[in-house]
Hints:
This protein is of the alpha/beta class.
Amino acid sequence: MGAFLRFLDSEKNRIGRLIILGDFFEFLFGFKNFFVTEKAPAFTDYLPVFNKLQSLYREGIQIKYFEGNHDFFLRSFFSEQLGMEVEVHRDGCEERLGGKRVFIAHGDLSNPKQWAYRSFRRILKNSVTYRVIQVAGPRISRWVARKLSDMSYEKYHNDVQPISPPAFKVFAYQKFLDGFEVVILGHSHFPEEVEEWIDGRRCLYYNVGDWMIHRSFLRFIPPDRFQLERYHGG
């Protein structure tokens, strides 16, 4: 966490807009009373990051957040709990960057063959489950989320053979055929950049990777340059 806070401090004078592609925390749910419960404070370990995001927001930096598979019910969370106007997306969306048509998403829906995960995701991300999580409270919900996260990591992220998951590039290629020129995803924990030429169009796929292992991020430099980088400070 300390390295990420130092990264934001080092970059804040160069940032006009900060886009977070989800799974920024181990578990993030938009509880109505997020920081204080009747029995004990909740999620206080997140406070340094939230305070930093609030500071960036007050300095005029726009923030956009894409929900990942660890993020739930955040539509009004930032405004109600933190006093920040953050644009939240549950799924992917289209952007215009440097005159290019860009598709941005967390990336957990990139593989259509993961039908079991997609079904499980629909169960998790619905109003009935949200009410159950709200009643269960932060402590129980976070314990369950940690168990599910450990199971998911063992199944989908193998550090022994860190190869690029092909499904992400296939997904990007389909988006290129749909007319997008740039596709930006996360979720794979594998930073990569792929260039393809389709009908004379230069198309770019980026995966921002992750922060815990690679400390990787994607920088957009106007008017039209994208740069996949790693933070080496701290």
